[in-house]
Amino acid sequence: MVTTATTAAPLIEKHTIGYVPPEDRHGKTRDLFTLWFGGNIAPLPIVTGALGVQMFHLNLVWGIVAILVGHLVGGVLMALHSAQGPQMGIPQMIQSRAQFGSLGALLVVLIAGIMYIGFFASNIVLAGKSLHGVVDSVPVPVGIVIGALGSGIIGIIGYRFIHVLNRIGTWVLGAGIVLGFGYIFTHVQTADFLTRGSFNISGWLATVSLAALWQIAFAPYVSDYSRYLPASVPVAATFWTTYLGTVLGSSLSFIFGAVAVLATPVGMDTMDAVKLATGSIGPLMLVLFLLSVISHNALNLYGAVLSVITLVQTFAYRWIPTAKSRAVLSLIILAACCFAAVGASANFIGHFVDMVLVLLVVLVPWTAINLIDFYAIHKGRYDIDSIFKVDGGIYGRYNPQALLAYVIGIAVQIPFMNTPLYVGPISEHINGADLSWLVGLLITSPLYYWLANRDSAYKRRLSTGKLANSI
């Protein structure tokens, strides 16, 4: 599992969306475990995990089972995307041009960019509230700006620094959340800790979906953080280190949120419940979570910037973006998010979760198409030069098979959706459980495989040009 790496890798990242050449590859696969474990010990997954008992009224046991099932299933998709990074050496979103065409990929890239910006804005709100909770004299708006600047510095420095911080964070945050669990279980303040809530199939399915969608939300950028690993890294090693890190870290955070809410009186805000439930170590937990938010939020800013660069480079194909371009775009996005977050409503995070659920409806078919194309059709062999050509090279401007499967993949989810904008008839019939993501995956995957394999012109394109990076 250990890889050979360049020991003199610069701290400030010089690449953006371009191919990472062999001489610039560095790192070890174990870095992926610490990145996704440490990155998931944070307030946002804690708040999301609490919804299983707050909103869907499960008890502790069934809430934990639903959380584990969702992360175990969704983590497979997330880790399969991660394993593409060392083989391709390019960011996830620009790789989508090989499936959808140079122009056909624009919609997915735009949606992913909006989602990153939403995540970033939500997390700086959490950072502002956490900092205010630690130091009362710091107003929430000031805390928001401080949190955003901290994430901005990390994101601008880039890939290597992000990994370094999460290696440290894994040990510190891992110890902190174990300490927090220990304190809560020995200081439960409610008589109905184990009996509040009950099993209900709609709530259980909804909680499974929340956990699975949490993992799928990483899919558009997870391979961005494995693309610097040497191409010789086994796919299995990349998959398992990512999978174990993300499933363990996110499951702990989701369960921690559920436990904290059940250990405190009904109706409390999740992070207030965490502060109350952890008692004397509450301030320490808030400090750890604050540092976690700032560190992990750098990934959202980094992903947003790469998406914007990908969109611009589609039309300005002669442009060679540099580290300076990445820094300037980071500051622009940071300033815009601070402005929006400071003036946001009190229920900003709730609105954000609603937005992500809507966006994931259109990202799920992309996940299916991307994975089927990479593992079953191309088997990891792509012409990197064509991906960066304005006309898409051998992949063209549009891939009709991918676009048709994508549209159908969205359409079949509609009856199963449960979002603030629309509740499908089937979801309504099963008391609001959202199974759209599962239906989207099960329909889109075989459909795209069938469409791609029956198209003789597409097959000819696959056999044309210099294909590299075989898995």
UniProtKB/TrEMBL annotation:
Protein name (database record): Cytosine permease
GO MF annotation: an example: transmembrane transporter activity
Cellular component annotations (GO), alphabetically ordered: plasma membrane
Cellular compartments annotated: Membrane
Taxonomic source organism: Pseudomonas fluorescens
Family: Belongs to the purine-cytosine permease (2.A.39) family.
TM annotation in the entry: 33-53, 60-80, 100-126, 138-162, 168-186, 198-222, 242-264, 327-349, 355-377, 403-423, 435-452
UniProtKB keywords: Membrane, Transmembrane, Transmembrane helix, Transport
Chief localization: membrane
Membrane topology, as annotated: Multi-pass membrane protein
CDD domains found in the cross-reference section: SLC-NCS1sbd_CobB-like
One Pfam family named in its UniProt record: Transp_cyt_pur
